[in-house]
Amino acid sequence: MSWRPVQTPAPGAGEVRIRIEAAGVSGYDLMIRGHWFLGFTKTPYTPGEDFVGIVDAIGPGVSNFTIGQRVAGWTFGQGGGYAEMIVRPAETLVSVPDGVAPITVAAIITNYLTASLVLEKTANVRPGERLLIHGAAGGLGSALLQLGNLAGFEMFGTGSEKSTDFIADNGAVPINYRTENFVRCIRELTGDGVDVVIDVVGGPRQLWRSSRCLRRGGRLVMLGMASIYKSGPAIIPLSLLTAGAVAILPNGVSVPMSPSMLSFPAKNLDWYRDTLTDLLEKAAAGRLRPAIAAEIPMPEASQAHAMLEAGGLVGKVVLTNSK
User: Fold this and answer.
1) Less packed terminus of the chain by CB within 10 Å, N or C?
2) Is the CB of residue 13 less than 8 Å from the CB of residue 52?
3) CA dist., res. 266 & res. 249, Å (int)
4) What residues contact residue 76 under an 8 Å CB cut-off, 6+ apart?
5) DSSP bridge partners of 58
6) For residue 217, how many other CB atoms are within 10 A of its CB?
7) Cα separation, 238 vs 17, whole angstroms
8) DSSP 185-216
9) Which residues contact 7 (CB under 8 A, 6 or more apart)?
10) How many whole angstroms from its chain centre is CA 125?
11) Helices (H), ranges, the chain
12) How many CB atoms are located within 10 Å of the residue 192 CB?
């Protein structure tokens, strides 16, 4: 990746131009850059799915935003966040409450929206149920932890030794995946297993072991594929085959598939705006405190990608533009 000058875009009808203050770095960005899947956007391409910044210009027909207002948004797979300026449809933006720092907003958008969708719709976690979250200290895992803690779920989270305190502080029983057998731990801690496992790691062995942590009738949610960075894209079909095998076993375990986060919010803009607004208001009230693993200058985005690929982070990596 390289930082290059481009022409500053002008907003068209119904659009807003934003001077970006911060943008989140996600696993999807890494997959785009690595060309993991056929059909992904061809280069040159500007990554970046979530952003926060100041309204710089307004196109015709926009009346709900003003110059100088801080807004946040998601690009739904279209990219463009790793930049100084971005133009987006006004209907995809929400206002940022006073007192919420740009890096906090950038850490919330993708991860907490994804976590909200998974907990409420995909896994349909209910009060009183037990939840195991893999990669619980990462950007998405920590969002699941904090939202699950607010909802009062009984939670367990896997992570490395350096993340155990963070996991415990966010309401879950930590399990060190490097020194402990998480299947044995869950059985010893619960007796009969958990109701939901959310697995952001992927891989056939990982998914099979996750399924063994479930009670009869439990749900295994395959939410990510972090293992792709070490094992390569072949891990994807193997993971899907494993998930399919788990789903047909006569033990009542289901493998619900989460709606695409590239299409669901774009097709359900009311849900997207209402949920993101609620999340930002919770942050303004101090009820959500997203962990920031690192704050990296925007031109050094390649460093941020290297950090994600290395793993072991606690929280979200955020890119920032200088004042």
Assistant:
1) C
2) no
3) 35
4) 49, 92, 262, 263, 265, 266
5) 16
6) 10
7) 42
8) HHHHHHSS-EEEEEESS--HHHHHHHHTTEEE
9) none
10) 18
11) 27-34, 102-117, 139-151, 164-169, 182-190, 204-211, 228-231, 235-248, 264-267, 269-284, 301-310
12) 11
The closest of 134, 143, 142, 156 to 206, measured between CA atoms, is 134
Distance CA 121, CA 25 (A): 24
For the cut 70, the answer to whether the pLDDT of residue 69 exceeds it is: yes
Residue type, 161: E
Q: What would the pLDDT profile of 91-116 be if each residue is shown by its tens digit?
A: 999 999 999 999 999 999 999 999 99
Count Cα atoms within 13 angstroms, Cβ side, for 303.
12
The pair of three-digit structure tokens given for residue 219, joined into one six-digit string? 């749900």
CA distance readout (Å), 204 to 185, 200, 208, 222, 309 = 20, 12, 6, 11, 20
Position 313 scores a pLDDT of 81
> Strand, helix or coil at 115?
helix
Cβ neighbors of 161 (< 8 A, separation 6 or more) are 176, 178, 179
pTM score of the predicted model: 0.90
| pLDDT attached to residue 225 | 61
Burial (Cβ within 10 Å: 0-12, 13-18, ≥19) of residue 243: buried
- pLDDT (mean) for 148-174: 93
Q: Which residue reads 């050094």 in tokens?
A: 300
Is residue 108 classed exposed, middle or buried when 0-12, 13-18 and 19+ CB atoms within 10 A define those classes? Answer: buried
Mean pLDDT, rounded, for 232-253 = 73
- Residue appearing with tokens 């100084």: 84
Q: What is the mean pLDDT of residues 205-226?
A: 86
CA distances from 235 to 9, 204, 239, 256, 306 (A): 39, 8, 6, 19, 20
3-class DSSP state for residue 154?
strand
**Type of residue at 257:** M
Residues 6+ apart with CB under 8 A from 169: none
